[in-house]
## 1
Amino acid sequence: MALSSWAFALSLTGCGQRSSAPNSSNGQAAHAAQASASSAPALVEIKLRGNCNPPQFDPIGLWVPLGQTVRWRAESQTHKLSAYHPDNGKELRIPEKARPWSVMLDAGCPEIPESFDYTFTVEGVYDYFCEMHEQMGMVGRIVVGEPKGPAKPLEQGIPKAAWALMPSVEQIMREKTVSVPKSC
Ligand SMILES: [Cu+2]
């Protein structure tokens, strides 16, 4: 168990560690209503599981059409969800014209949002990670429309353990949704 990661998380958030958390809150319900009113395609959700070994995004690989809104939701523990982008201190692994994101999410801390919505308006391959659990393999990939560059096909800038789990673009195009075995 990476104690230093937890210590880092706790010092950042000021929230106590939680082994489990409720699935929803009133604030999230209002947020969801707002999101569904403004976008035609149904919301697609990716869960952030901190209690898994290793911590994981589920699904880890996803294809969506252009204009799709994706919601990441913390199911357990604290995470920092970030795009692979120079703004986040990483190699560029999302389309050049796409705006990067970096947000703290927590499954139960009142001061930190539980979920984050992002609408994909640029086609291509998006690789992202959790800053707290990247070394353990917590990464994900989304293909929007046609899988054109410049997201790098190689493991440049990604830890070995994470790269071993990352689904290929080909697998995502074939299966549309790729999950890793649930280990929690
Ligand atoms: Cu995480």
## 2
Amino acid sequence: MNALILGGGPAGCAAAYELRAAGVVEITIAEREALGGCARTQRYEGIPYEFGPQVMYTDEEPLREVFERFLRQTPPPTDDGEYHPKVSIDGTLDDPHDFPITVANVLKLPDPARAIYELYQVNLEKPDYTSFESYIISRIGRTLYETYVRNYNLKQWKIPPSEMDAEWARFRTLTLRERPDMFRGRWQGHPGDYNPLWEGLAAGARVVRGEAAVSADFQRVSVDGDPVEADLIVSTLPLSADLEFINTCILYVVVRSEAEVMPSYATSFPNHYGFVRVMDYRQQYRVDSELALLDFEFPWVGVCEEQKYREEAEWFCRNVLRREILESWVWNKERVYPVATRKNLARVEAQLERAAASRVIPIGRAGVHAYCSKDTCLRMAKIVASNLDAVRSGDPARKLAVLRTLREKLN
Ligand SMILES: Cc1cc2nc3c(=O)[nH]c(=O)nc-3n(C[C@H](O)[C@H](O)[C@H](O)COP(=O)(O)OP(=O)(O)OC[C@H]3O[C@@H](n4cnc5c(N)ncnc54)[C@H](O)[C@@H]3O)c2cc1C
């Protein structure tokens, strides 16, 4: 049996690894750039960076084993060994709050009594699944939602949170925390370099550089316009051309400072600026350097306004950090965040049914049209490899049942 994998990001590399483990000997990966996708590690003056904060985490032993087979884990840069992102609700760095929201945050609000009253009304057993907005309000109350969540999501998704499906929120487990615990005690860290993972997972597969495409009915697959065939085709490409995504322009800037310039490795700004978050790679990876490498993450649809983003980052560095930018560059990617409106999710279901009647197996973030983490990519690949009989049976119902399980647990 031979397999063709479209896209060599975390999902494609994981698929190569799991298929080989399941006995598929001839595997080809068609990749337009380089293995690793969003989580390919680059370097600036010894500081590693990826496309945004790429923390690895998992609570599943078999997935952890895969990470550890190829990677050395560098623990997070905090005393308790956990990552602690921060959030600035006023646009300054004077008094950053915890993210996810903690009891300490509530006490810092102008009207804590109101937030506490609303928290008393919360019934975690009975979330309101009407929309993303109603779901979050049902878990943390309106005041906390409006202070920390509403505007961030407007910036990120460009549509009112009331129009987003609750599916997106369900996997973010947003509740009031006693203490900051972004990854809820899960095994977490950063290797300092993810590339041995991508190369290790893909070892033994033939990697061809090219632009892959799948026809709308999943019946034809091509690489650089040439039709290709395989017994098994795993696609990490978008499930359909008409599903909506948010594009992301990440602007990297370098400033000189011996002291930390940001309060955390990742600081979000729900209520100010066009960027959603500033990432500090030197802090995340505990690199000893007099340079700080930061990134500003700008979600966009329609037109990427790079010049405007540069001006805003410059303003922030000059006025908030009191630093001049020494160097800057962008890494812009289209179709990064799958939008979870009800309309899109209905299309996803219809597309999965179509894919079930073909040889194509969609996995990964774009393949199942859901935001997912690296460990979710590994899990999806495992699900496919352990259900090869079903996905190759020619029985659409059996294959569809497997495809649906890919979306059951999204981190
Ligand atoms: C800003 C940001 C921060 C994140 N932080 C974390 C985190 O902290 N922890 C975590 O676990 N996850 C994180 N993630 C999620 C993680 O990046 C994804 O789970 C992972 O990248 C998804 O892998 P993928 O293979 O599905 O997609 P991608 O990483 O996008 O890889 C897709 C690959 O396919 C290739 N490709 C696309 N189209 C074609 C084509 N037509 N032909 C050929 N090749 C093609 C691309 O070049 C790319 O290599 C983050 C994501 C983002 C965007």
